[in-house]
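Sharing a chain and its predicted structure for anyone who wants a worked example. Both blocks are below, sequence first, tokens second.
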Amino acid sequence: MNETLMETSTLTELRSLFGERLQENAPLSGYTAARIGGLADVLVIAHSADELARSAKLLWEMKMPFILLGGGSNVLVSDNGVRGVVIINRARKVVIDDQVEPPSVLAESGVTPNDISQRAARLELTGFEWAAGIPGSLGGAIYGNAGAFGGDMAGNLVSLELIHRDHGRQVWPVEKMEYSYRSSTLKRDHQQVVILSAKLALKKGDPRSISSKMKEYSDRRHKTQPPGTSMGSMFKNPAGDKAGRLIEAAGLKGSRIGNAEISSQHANFFITHEPTRAQDMKALIDLAQRTVAEKFGVTLELEIELIGDWQN
């Protein structure tokens, strides 16, 4: 670790606060879906919503910047790594109550939407089939209004619990998220909060219909989304169009820089051939944005987030 980036006194305080939970100079590639990323100065794993809240509160009190990673599916972490602290969200408790009307799900933010979808299906609950197969964390899905096949988090979320840097723990109704396509007030305003858990609404359904939907969506994913390691959809779809169509029409399908490649199956998926450098993936992103802008006058907006130190 570069001591000019984190002073010895700060590191000593972190060691005192987090004890054995603290990891130093931790590789982040194992915590991202793309298996890309340099070292975090310091890494802490939170195994419950309460532990997640305490970790965030301690770091805010220290005025220590931190980044939160869940499933790591919609992020590209720099080869230079992350200065400061990274919290890995492993808070995954789920409680489903199918005896109330409507049935409800209480889930901590580190669980995957796919896990919730599969559990709900086994209890013959419908409304979350669209999330089957979606990687990442529930917290990330809530933050970015993840969706597929006509469903999204805005349609399922009832409320969420979060901790705010300045106002402590709060419960927000879904309306306060001010959802839009693949975005929310938290994402747009970069508010200093950590999502801890959420309540979702489902319905009782017909098991055959639920099973049929799950199979249909799974088959469609396998047909349209490439196998291999990726971050998910790279760009948001522009109004009235598809990012993948534009990238393909620009002649970039199958383009490769280093071990990063624009999928020849679906041009809005950028896949990795391990080992892959983040700088090569970023160069491929820049190539797609530049070429589509030049050919069609459309600015592609990233759906993923760039994490870490991107200075050369």
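Comments welcome. The chain has nine helices and 19 strands.
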